[in-house]
């Protein structure tokens, strides 16, 4: 048995230990809990899908945007698809139908769907059907039906013209001066003459070319018919969109080996367009989403379609604002954000795969909105 003096020591020691531990715990930074965020936005971007409806669904489920019945469960999330839903695989038709249905559902839930046209959408429109499989034409109900659906008289032609763009600028938050990201199928080239005003100029030229191509009578498909080239009346600037150096076909940001050159291009593009990141598809890496220059450039084509057998992937961005003074309420509405106040802005960028998420970059900085 300890005597009175030993008891005193044990009790004092215990108290000291408790005091030290509790003050240590108090000094630790509180975790940023959702309760302290004034604003939170999640964005998911998916690359080339090439006629694979199964993997399209698998990727959207992996990204927690749709459920087992293809219903939108993404709430206020933003989904961006960077083009080339068609060719190679069989089920392009189903992919376009799925996106049309998700566009309505997302907007009802306060979310957004941005769909971008790829070089393969344009190829089909102008009659270059070299990558169209027999199975795709059969699944569509024959060549005549397919041509009709894609024309200005058909649902898909109308959907492309109304709801697809050649490039998309997507804002991460709804306040003036909020950061935005650029999405294009191919690479934007810094010396491409029609970058500005961004994104309107590119989209006006893309829509011009597309509506010429889709105006009946559409070009008879090649093969077996001879390739007609761009539609009659196409302007030089419209032809530039479809050129090897244009936004649908160029691969510079993906293919250039010299990292320093790519970073200079990225810097120039970011300044010119006023966007934070340049994101594209078109050039597959069958293993991973490729980030360059610390995430200034991200290439998200991982050959998702069974026609390629690459890896299922999605780019995920989680953007949040926490008030520096006082706690705001968690809300995705702009009313929680107060102009002139200081916030901690946090942007987390991840590559998502079936085996897990991989961090690309995280930015945290103080800003006044
Ligand atoms: C474009 O999208 C809207 C919203 O989902 C839809 O109501 C509309 O029918 C689409 N337009 C065309 C021409 O398909």
From TrEMBL:
It comes from Cutaneotrichosporon cavernicola. Residues 42-284 form the Calcineurin-like phosphoesterase domain. Residues 1-25 form the signal peptide. The keyword Signal applies. Coiled coil: none annotated. InterPro entries: Calcineurin-like_PHP (IPR004843), Metallo-depent_PP-like (IPR029052). GO terms for molecular function: hydrolase activity. This is Calcineurin-like phosphoesterase domain-containing protein.
């Amino acid at each position: 048995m300890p005597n009175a003096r030993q008891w005193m020591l044990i009790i004092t020691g215990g108290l000291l230990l408790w005091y030290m531990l509790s003050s240590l715990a108090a000094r630790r930074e509180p975790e940023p809990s959702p309760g302290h965020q004034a604003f939170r936005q999640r964005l998911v971007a998916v690359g080339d899908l090439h006629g694979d409806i199964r993997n399209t669904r698998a990727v959207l489920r992996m990204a927690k945007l749709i459920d087992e019945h293809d219903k939108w469960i993404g709430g206020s999330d933003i989904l961006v698809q960077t083009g080339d839903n068609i060719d190679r695989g069989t089920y392009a038709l189903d992919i376009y139908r799925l996106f049309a249905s998700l566009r309505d559902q997302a907007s009802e839930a306060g979310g957004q769907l941005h769909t971008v046209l790829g070089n393969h959408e344009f190829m089909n429109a102008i009659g270059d059907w070299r990558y169209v499989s027999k199975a795709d034409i059969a699944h569509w109900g024959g060549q005549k039906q397919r041509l009709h659906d894609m024309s200005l008289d058909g649902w898909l032609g109308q959907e492309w013209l109304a709801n697809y763009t050649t490039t998309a600028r997507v804002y991460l938050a709804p306040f003036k001066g909020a950061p935005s990201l650029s999405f294009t199928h191919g690479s934007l080239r810094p010396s491409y003459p029609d970058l500005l005003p961004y994104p309107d100029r590119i989209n006006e030229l893309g829509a011009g070319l597309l509506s010429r191509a889709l105006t009946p009578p559409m070009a008879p498909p090649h093969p077996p018919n001879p390739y007609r080239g761009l539609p009659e009346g196409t302007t030089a600037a419209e032809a530039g969109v479809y050129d090897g150096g244009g936004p649908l076909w160029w691969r510079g940001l993906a293919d250039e080996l010299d990292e320093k050159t790519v970073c200079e291009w990225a810097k120039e593009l970011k300044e010119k367009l006023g966007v934070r990141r340049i994101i594209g598809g078109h050039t597959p890496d069958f293993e991973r989403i490729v980030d360059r220059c610390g995430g200034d450039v991200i290439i998200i084509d991982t050959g998702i379609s069974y026609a390629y057998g690459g890896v299922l992937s999605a780019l995920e961005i989680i953007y949040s604002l926490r008030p520096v003074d006082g706690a705001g309420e968690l809300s995705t509405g702009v009313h929680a954000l107060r102009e002139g106040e200081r916030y901690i802005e946090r942007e987390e960028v991840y590559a998502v795969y079936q085996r897990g998420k991989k961090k690309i970059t995280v930015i945290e900085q103080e800003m006044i909105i």
